[in-house]
Design goal:
Two copies of one chain form a homodimer. A three-stranded antiparallel β-sheet of chain A has the order 1-3-2. In chain A, strand 2 and strand 3 form a beta hairpin. With about 140 residues, the first copy, chain A, is mostly helical. The interface between A and B is large, with 64 and 64 residues. Chain B binds a DNA duplex (20 and 20 nucleotides) through helix 3 and helix 4.
Amino acid sequence: MIKNKSINPITYHAPDGTPADPEVQKLVEELIGQVADKWTMIVLELLYEQGTLRFTELFRQIGGISQKMLTQTLRNMERSGFIQRTVYPVVPPKVEYQITELGLTLGEAFCGVWMWAEKNLKHVHTARKNYDEERSN
Amino acid sequence: MIKNKSINPITYHAPDGTPADPEVQKLVEELIGQVADKWTMIVLELLYEQGTLRFTELFRQIGGISQKMLTQTLRNMERSGFIQRTVYPVVPPKVEYQITELGLTLGEAFCGVWMWAEKNLKHVHTARKNYDEERSN
DNA sequence: CAGCATCCATCTAGATACTG
DNA sequence: CAGTATCTAGATGGATGCTG
């Protein structure tokens, strides 16, 4: 990353020094926000592992999500192109969800965070423990 | 990632098939949540670029954040060990914040998401546009 | 300067009930 | 089965005023 003297708005830079497009910046913030909604990553993971799942199968396997939240999560993911929704015109209804190429690569992009967490789990815990102990005295 | 037949709780896997520790999983979710709080990443970036900054300098450069939120963000980041807080016993008070090694590597870990966003910006926009157009008819 | 305490608007998620 | 609609409790963030 390179030095940035501009006051406002903030300009992000990649580690190699390439300044980032504001649009990219906006998308990154959206992505992180979306994934942080707590259900998106779980759905992504399940579809990553199992390819295709029906609404109720997702509902059951996630466990703890409400129907409303599952629907909302799936709609947002579909809208952004991470998953594909297929409706079969049968009675009772049958709807299948499957991960797309885009969703697949997104999952992989978050992999760096996973590896960081694995590697630094203890450092973070230690830091927090030290911090908390200092305040409690 | 490998197939996972367990119903609940969900077990995450790395792309190479290594099952993830529940503790790591929890930390990943926390990290993404923390970074998604909208200010953490901005602070991380500023300290990444400029090394050390005082409270008011951060406050000014971020622009739009409230003092309360800045304080809260800085405390959380300090607690997790991403930044270091140094208080100089002078009047008026002087407090400096600087990024740690841990914070530095965390920023780099999120780089994969950045690169994904850069590469797939158009795909996402197209997907969203198509989705929105289909509903408006 | 660098906070903390308090109040308040808003946004969100979950529970619940209903439907093609 | 796969949703939609509605209501509400709780979390979140911003504004404001005060302080060592």
